[in-house]
Amino acid sequence: MLKLHGLVGIIVSFFFLSTSAFAGGMIKGKIDYKKKRWIRDTFVYLENVPDKWEPQEAEMNQVGSTFIPKYLPIIVGSTVKFLNSDPTEHNVYSPDHETFNLGKANQGEVLSHTFNKVGGYTQLCKLHAAMIAFVVVLPNPYYGQSDKKGVFVIKDVPPGHYRLITWNQRYKADHVEVDVKDGESVEVTIKLHR
Questions:
Q1: Is the CATH number 2.60.40.420 carried by domain 52-139?
Q2: How high is the mean pLDDT of the chain?
Q3: Tens of pLDDT along 130-172?
Q4: Do the domains 23-51+141-194 and 52-139 sit in the same CATH topology, yes or no?
Q5: What is the model's pTM?
Q6: How far apart, in whole angstroms, are the C-alpha atoms of residue 192 and residue 37?
Q7: Which of 29, 63, 101, 134 would be a feasible disulfide site paired with 188, CB 3.0-4.6 Å?
Q8: Where are the domains of the chain?
């Protein structure tokens, strides 16, 4: 029995080693800017990943005259359903990229839009000027969203050479080139600018 347990232990250990070997690499980064309030909720994604991903369906709600969530990352080609949960009438429109205006919706009604261009779309309501949110359209699922300290992580990145693209609701950033190796992590600092 001890030999069997040992064999099982070896098999289990080999299984974990094998799966970790295919986990890819990791990109750890930090967003840097003098005004720290703007480093949060910055999205960093890989530009040139040689693969395709299926579009999804996602939802952005309108509750208390607020878009929820404020930041919604999706894969390009995905459809977002905008649900109005308020007793008041709302509108959904965006001035970005191809621009769209989905019209008005009463409580319980849903307006939908399919996002076919990569980038950030500002979501607004013509009836309530203070309402604002962002749909961040990504080319692939390899992205990181920074926390309040500006820290982000992109996990399980296939080995290769990539360009990192940054989206921030207010500022810009230069592209960063990285080489990712299997089982290793790469650290980068991305500086925002006007």
A1: yes
A2: 90
A3: 999 999 999 999 999 999 999 999 999 999 999 999 999 999 9
A4: yes
A5: 0.87
A6: 12
A7: 29
A8: 23-51+141-194, 52-139
